[in-house]
Write a structure and sequence with these properties.
The chain is 60% helix and 13% strand. It is of the alpha+beta class and 233 residues long. A hairpin with a 2-residue loop joins strand 1 and strand 2.
Length: 233
């Protein structure tokens, strides 16, 4: 993907109604393009655990979740091994017995998980589900082609999400620092002590009460603000 194309895609995603919507559209399009696919989802590993980024319209939510809970299943194995996993008829499948039982109860008869290479992640896969035995057999090449084309879009989505999370972390850190500084100022004025001693007292109180320092300081600032408000200050 060229830099220009990447920038354009980044901008399109930012302008969209949200990454969730865009990725949902991607899975809906997969169902339209891959013969035999009745549902589709995208699995990625984030912070050491697998999760579903998006699922097509009408997809049972437990199809992927049961695999994550069991630690096995086509999408789990594809994401973790980087190899394609296909189950043409789940009534005859023996690799994932507990998951197979659930999938059949949800009306799924065949499953195909195609790995996707994504930057900076521990693994990803696009998962296709069919309601008829062997339904995805003729669609495997189309599924592989779709997964290859979708890799860049998933990469961009994850990159934007990481940027947003980073920005949120910075805002949280700044807000925490601000409320701690306010609490230090309150103690300095009330107890006529310097900033170092005030911070040490707050830390000790945080440990004694088993409350996060930020939360303890927030409570102190809120109490003082409420008191000042009552007295018209």
């Amino acid at each position: 993907m060229s830099s220009e194309t990447s920038d354009t895609l980044d901008q399109a995603m930012v302008r969209s109604s949200g990454l969730d919507t865009l990725l949902r559209d991607l899975t809906d399009r997969a169902v339209q393009e891959v013969p035999g696919a009745d549902a589709c989802s995208i699995t990625v590993r984030r912070a050491g655990r697998l999760l579903t980024l998006a699922g097509s319209d009408g997809m049972p939510s437990g199809l992927d979740l049961r695999q994550y809970e069991n630690g096995s299943g086509p999408c789990v194995d594809a994401a973790e091994t980087g190899e394609e996993h296909y189950a043409p008829d789940l009534t005859e499948e023996s690799r994932w017995p507990s998951y197979t039982e659930y999938a059949l109860s949800a009306g799924v008869r065949c499953a195909l998980a195609v790995p996707v290479a994504v930057e900076g992640e521990g693994g990803a896969a696009i998962n296709f589900y069919g309601v008829r035995a062997g339904a995805l057999g003729t669609g495997r090449e189309a599924a592989r082609a779709f997964a290859a084309r979708s890799g860049d879009a998933i990469d961009v989505a994850l990159r934007i999400e990481r940027r947003r999370q980073s920005a949120a972390d910075v805002r949280t850190a700044l807000l925490s620092r601000s409320v701690i500084d306010q609490a230090i100022g309150i103690l300095m004025a009330r107890e006529r002590i310097d900033a170092r001693i005030a911070l040490e007292r707050l830390r000790r109180a945080s440990q004694d009460r088993n409350v996060k320092l930020r939360d303890l300081c927030g409570q102190l600032v809120a109490r003082v603000s409420a008191r000042d408000s009552r007295h018209g200050k």
